[in-house]
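call fold(seq) -> tokens
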Amino acid sequence: MLYKQIEQNKRKTFLLVALFIVLVMGVGSAVGYLGYGEAWIGVILAAVILAFYVPITYMSASSQVLSMSGAAIATREEYPQLYNIIEDLCIPARIPMPKIYIVQDPSPNAFATGIKPEKGSVAFTTGLLQQLNREELEGVAAHEIGHIRNYDIRLMTISVALIAIIAILGDIGARMLFFGRRGSNNNSENKKTNPAIMIIALVFVILAPLAARFVHLAVSRNREYLADATAVEMTRNAVGLKNALLKISNSDLDVERAKQATASMYIASPFSKVRKKNRGSWFSTHPSMESRIERLEQM
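ret:
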């Protein structure tokens, strides 16, 4: 059951990423048609924005998340148990030892960053360390290391960048259509001769950012399931992670410095109201706790 679930999650993620690429190219084509009457111009524009925006986001995302959360390096002298747990988990994960950070916050939560295992970091709130026993902490740590091993942070970083690119392209398309209609009297400048295709392109430009957001959230939820399964694979114990998720879900505290933009990075939503009300909505960054626990019980 465990390995079957891992393979299913990987296939779903591949399909979702493919859909993301189709959305970017589709909105680029629509922008090109609306602005110039030629879809290929928009595809080139999308490729140029991709070439600049993705690398910038890719290189700066991890440091930004750690800075925004107020995370500070944890020393071995102060947190020996945490270091021992992480070191033990890195052996079955076959990854280098990540940097360990602590966030001074009473809400129990954790997250991982790093675009590749060699750059990996894991962060735990003080509330999590205080409320969880060793078995539960091992389950959470294994989940976060699973994200690093599975290159989830890289995937989610690129996903966020693609959402931004689609929004940028959509804004360019709307501006091109508006100014083109107001300022163009020359028929040679206006090649948009098919009203039906224009309407389809306009609808696509308007709806693509929303669709991209849904895809991003679907990828995020899928990677949480995969990280849960990976954690069980490494620890051979689903009980610790299950009990940890129960404790986290029962907390009424928000992670104080968490932002909407970084909510998907945490093991559970950092906002208590979202954790309580989440029932697997399309707008959720995480699967419902009920569904995650149910899957863990089946492993």
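The radius of gyration is 22 Å.
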